[in-house]
Amino acid sequence: MTTDTTTKERPTTWAGQRDALSRLVWGRVASLQKQYCRPDPTPPAKAALAQLRRAAADDGTWRGVSMDAFTVDMYTHVPVELYPLTGNGKERRFTDDPTKAEIAVRTAMTLYAIHQQSRREPIHGGTRPGTALARLAWGDGNETAVRRRFAALVTADGYPELIHHLRTMVRMLRDQGIAMDYGQLTGDLFTWQYRRSRDGVRLSWSRDFENHIAPRKSDSQGDPTT
User: Fold this and answer.
1) Options 1.10.520.40, 1.10.287.70, 3.40.50.1460, 3.90.660.10; which CATH number does 14-218 get?
2) Residue 71 burial by CB count (10 A; 0-12/13-18/19+): exposed, middle or buried?
C-alpha cells in the first residue's frame, strides 16, 4: 500500500499546495521503490510499475489510455484536500477535466515507473531535476547531445511537448542509473502549468544544469556535487 505524507488540512496558498503535492509523490514513490528494490520484489509493486508505464500517455495526461483503474488510481489520485483553489481562495468546483495537480502527480508517477524499469537499485532520491540531467553530460562525448535535448526541454511551449522531451531524458537517466527527486519534479510540473510561473521552473532547471556541469568540466578535483 502507499504512504501519503500530506497534511490533513487544505493548503491555503498556491505554494502550500505545490509543496503538499511534492510530499505526496515523494512518499508514494519511496513506498513503491522500497517494495520493488528489495531482493524479492513484491508482486504488487511489479504489477503497479508495469501498469503505470502503460498509463503514460504521450501528452502527460491519461485521456484515452487503457489501464488497471484501481491500481493506477491508488498511486496517482489526488486527495480532495489538495484540489486547487481559485484566485479568491475558494475551493475549485469539480469538473470532468483533470486539474493541474492531478496531471502533475500522474505524470511524475508514470515517469518514475519508466525510470525504474529494469533497474534494481533506487532511482528516486534527493537529486533535483536539473542536477540529474546535468549528470548525463558527464560521460565522454555526451555533453553536446545532452545540451541539445536539455535546450529542447526548457524551451518547450506546451505541456505535451515538455513531457515528450522529459520522457526521453528520463529514459537516458535510467540507462545511466542516475537518480532524480520525484517529489521535486512533481512540484515543478505543477508550477510549470501556470504560465506566469513557467519561466521560474525553466530558470531553476537551467541554473542547476549549468552549476553541475561547470565544475565537472573545469576540474579533476573531486565530486562536483560538493
Assistant:
1) 1.10.520.40
2) middle
How is the chain split into domains, by residue range? 14-218
Q: Which amino acid is at 10?
A: R
pLDDT digit string, tens, across residues 75-114: 888 887 776 655 544 445 556 678 889 899 999 999 999 9
141 CB-near residues (< 8 Å, 6+ apart): none
How many of the other CB atoms lie within 10 Å of CB of 120? 11
Cα(22)–Cα(125) distance, integer angstroms: 13
**HSE-up of residue 47 (Cα within 13 Å, Cβ side):** 11
